[in-house]
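From the shared-data thread, chain only:
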Amino acid sequence: MQDTAFPPSSPADHQAFADWIRLEGTEGVGVRGARKLLTAFGSPAAIFRAGQAALAAHVPAAQAAALCAPIPPALTERIARTLDWLARPGHHLLTLHDAGYPAALRHIPDPPLLLYINGQRERLGEPMIAVVGSRNASAQGRANAEGFAEALSHAGLCVVSGMALGIDTAAHEGALRGPGSTIAVIGTGADRVYPARNRALAHRIAEGGCIVSEYPLGTPPAAGNFPRRNRIISGMAAGVLVVEAAAQSGSLITAQMAAEQGREVFALPGSIHSALAKGCHQLIREGAQLVETVDEVLAALCCSPLARTAAPPPEAGHDLLLAALGHDPVDPDALLGRLGADAGQLAGELLALELAGLLERLPDGRVQRVVAARAAGPC
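Structure, as tokens:
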């Protein structure tokens, strides 16, 4: 889709982008070396004008020499390919110095120099929460992720995840059902879709939110890319919700990075007999906040009033669910049988009713219709 909020880039932008791509792509410099030089000289263009002796005062001689050497053909091709990609609607490149670069991400220890964006880049300025979890998720885990993400979207939060199979996919799907948006941070180039079966989902994310990558165009799905991209998922968000995770799950890496970055970490508890609950239980033992409802997440983020004002009133389509609830406690599985509904859809509708104050969850897992909303606690 065409992003009308930002004008097309100019030739001057193209030259600046070329300098940034050259800086990022110069072999041996890395993010730390680039940041040292940017601090000293102010911009990539100034770095390339400085001369080898001046550069060597800030980085090792080999790096200074590489920056002053002719641009390698492969890097020249990368620059040309990127500028061509940027000429197409909905494609953007954000540099570390751009005003639109996510403020929270800018202050992590190793922010990316460049963010390749496919979709609506203004979404990066919205309040965000990350929802992550196992690729090999259970049906209940996927339903929980969808339901929480949809309710968080209704609360005005942009849901960030990694577009992997399982919980990530469910989180994006749930967020897209709400009025808010979703962002996918991927471990390949922004011009590739991985896994391939999420191609249709990727198009929907780019239409309603955006896809973000720090990797150059054409980068394939290498194993090491995905743990590294997790710092971006947590770095952009105010908090990270882990829905389901095995003991060695990559989601634990995201949660650890979130904690190190000073973000809130939430975890959904599960059965002691489920391998997919082991990671969440480990996080809870290590200090993550155990949450069972969206309101608990929102309250911890000081967003509870926002949730109650942003959550829409129950739609007419909820009348059938309210009738099926009756006025006695009922098990959600029994509701599935009564309604013949999809588990993920039912979970989202129950959460919407809960946010609207028309339903409460009982300690034994059952739900019950209520006649008035409970007052929100202090933030």
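The chain has a mean pLDDT of 87.
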